[in-house]
Amino acid sequence: MAVDSSLSSPLGPPACEKDAKALQFIEQMTRNADAVQRTVLAEILTRNASTEYLRRYFLAGATDPNTFKDKLPVITYEDLQPEIQRIASGDRSPILSSHPISEFLTSSGTSAGERKLMPTIKEELDRRQLLYSLLMPVMNLYVPGLDKGKGLYFLFVKSETRTPGGLLARPVLTSYYKSEHFKTRPYDPYMVYTSPNEAILCPDSFQSMYTQMLCGLLERHQVLRLGAVFASGLLRAIRFLQLNWSDLANDIRTGKLSTKITDPSLRDCIEKILKPDEESADFISEECSKENWEGIVTRIWPKTKYLDVIVTGAMAQYIPTLDYYSGGLPLACTMYASSECYFGLNLNPMCKPSEVSYTIMPNMAYFEFLPHEPNSGNDSAPKLVDLVDVEVGKEYELVITTYAGLYRYRVGDILRVTGFHNAAPQFHFVRRKNVVLSIDSDKTDEAELQKAVENASKLLKEVKTSVVEYTSYADTTTIPGHYVIYWELMVKETEGKWPSKETMEQCCLAMEESLNSVYRQGRVADNSIGALEIRVVKSGTFEELMDYAISRGASINQYKVPRCVNFTPIMELLDSRVVSAHFSPALPRWTPARRR
Fold first, then answer.
1. Phi, psi values for residue 373, rounded to 5°
2. Angle in degrees, CA 441, 447, 449, rounded to 5
3. pTM above 0.85, yes or no
4. Which UniProt keywords apply (predicted)?
5. 78, 118, 267, 534: which has the fewest Cβ within 10 Å?
6. Strand bridging mode 161-162 / 168-170
7. Please, are residues 337 and 343 in contact by the beta-carbon 8 Å criterion?
């Protein structure tokens, strides 16, 4: 199909006219980033001028950036909790937004271990859909022919609750998958999935994964790309295939769906698709029964061109394992988003994971950047910088103002500026601020880890033993990954005794009980996190750790035990001193309880 030449893009020749318009939109937004940002701020402040929150700061109708910054403070979630609690309890007055809050999007936990509730409005779905619509036009510049096949994407809904005031509270992707935007999306040859909606929307994670994998196997010669939201999710799918290939192959051989699938609408949907195919079943059985699973992705799905997963930030730890199973297929990171806001996209999605940079789309929200200078020695609060004024090479914490009623809100992401596309900056995601451990969508910070260790170590008092020191790491060599905590113990010489295996296992469980609800849901409902492990090390191990750090140039006066380690020599030192290892013997308590 010929593409209108007036719609050509500096990014490259578009695959079709629809793509050309999307690429042209990206150019328009990024060329005029400053003007777009001023318009976005004016729109937000004008429409929400009568809200309780903005009236509190006496803006008096002003919509310019300078007045806005002079009057409104930079805030965190804790600052906003009273207002959010009122909305959750049923107060429908315009507290944060003049548009009704349609639902809450749940994010990773607060310091108290509860999920954050992010207010949103209906039109935000349009804004998210707009960003989604830009992803494939960019990808098509790098990977031709994606309209000639399908994508095997493992997408899942998670549990949702209602607040006392009746508003839904659920993860942002669950909200999107359950929306009409997703369920009744128009046909697009570049966006065809092997998984039917019924499989994606099934609330039972086993049945959802089983049927999505089954559909992917049935159409294995049509699959051109595999994906999940996070790298950990795709590895979980591969592990699922390792454990269930025999049943899946049997379904394909007989044309009859496993009795493990009990959801009526899902059974009805899959039974219409499933037909006996002995040849495919034999091939899948032959490949999956082999001991060596290296390159299994391209063996089962031979036309796969790339994996579409997030491998930045904490997910980078999964890259070697993905490379092993995929035979080194390209890893595409396409977009940057959170529960609070969708931010931007990767204009070079086939780059190396270490080189991923996201271009912020200035129409999504009003963006400010707090210089991140932890070692500057400057006690004065740094001045926030506008989107177009950030400097290449510097790191910033992202601060957003959204249409849904977040004003100068600190997201907690640390970003490094790598360059610009037109006038819009491009950022490398460095890390989440204060996060120590992460396996999937869980985020455990140092304070929470400390509290969990303290709670668990209370069980050692009976045997007159205490935890002298500890550190941790996220072990992703297992699927699913799990937290490993190293403990050095001290037993009171006269009356103390070494804790029993049962006591140590209960310590593991006590730690899990102390972690936030996102972690516990990953353990109980999503099966995305494995049992927590405590490895007890010999007495004196942490002194050796300090000696090693000092030998590498650390100051003995300023040395602090790292609460998380990922440097191979340190982990090897710790593992060489392990005297016993213990796993949590049961699942921690977790229920999708009604919010108070």
1. -130, 70
2. 60
3. no
4. Ligase
5. 78
6. antiparallel
7. yes
Alpha-carbon distance 63 to 238, whole Å? 51
- How far from 116 is each of 283, 403, 410, CA to CA, in Å? 46, 18, 13
Residue 1's pLDDT is what? 45
* 229's tokens: 């939201």
For 412, counting Cβ atoms within 10 Å of its Cβ (0-12 exposed, 13-18 middle, 19+ buried), the class is buried
The DSSP symbol for 122 reads T
CA distances from 300 to 200, 241, 306 (A): 21, 11, 14
122 closest CA partner among 139, 143, 99, 138 = 99
Tokens of 97: 């937004």
DSSP 8-state symbol, 12: B
d(CA 472, CA 486): 6
User: Which pairing describes strands 435-437 and 444-445: parallel, antiparallel, or unpaired?
Assistant: antiparallel
Residue 126, phi then psi, degrees to nearest 5: -65, -40
Element (H, E) at 270: helix 264-273
Question: Which residue, among 12, 74, 1, 148, has the nearest Cα to 401 in the 3D structure?
Answer: 74
Full 3-state SS string of 203-217: CCHHHHHHHHHHHHH
Name the residue ranges covered by the structural domains of the chain: 17-122+338-374+385-432, 147-304, 436-583
> Helix %, strand %, coil % for the chain, to 5?
40, 20, 40
Q: Beta 103-109 vs 168-170: how paired, if at all? A: parallel
Backbone angles phi, psi at 329, to 5 degrees: -60, 150
Note the pLDDT of residue 2.
Answer: 46
CA distances to 62, 72, 97, 244, 270 from 210, rounded to whole Å, are 55, 50, 41, 8, 11
User: Which regions in the chain score pLDDT beneath 50?
Assistant: 1-7, 110-113, 555, 595-596
The set of residues, in sequence order, having a beta carbon less than 8 Å from that of 198 and lying 6+ positions away, is 211, 263, 265, 266, 269, 270
- Report CA dihedral (505, 506, 507, 513) to the nearest 10 degrees: 120
Residue 263 to residue 19: CA distance in whole angstroms: 38
How far apart CA 178 and CA 160 sit, in angstroms, is 11
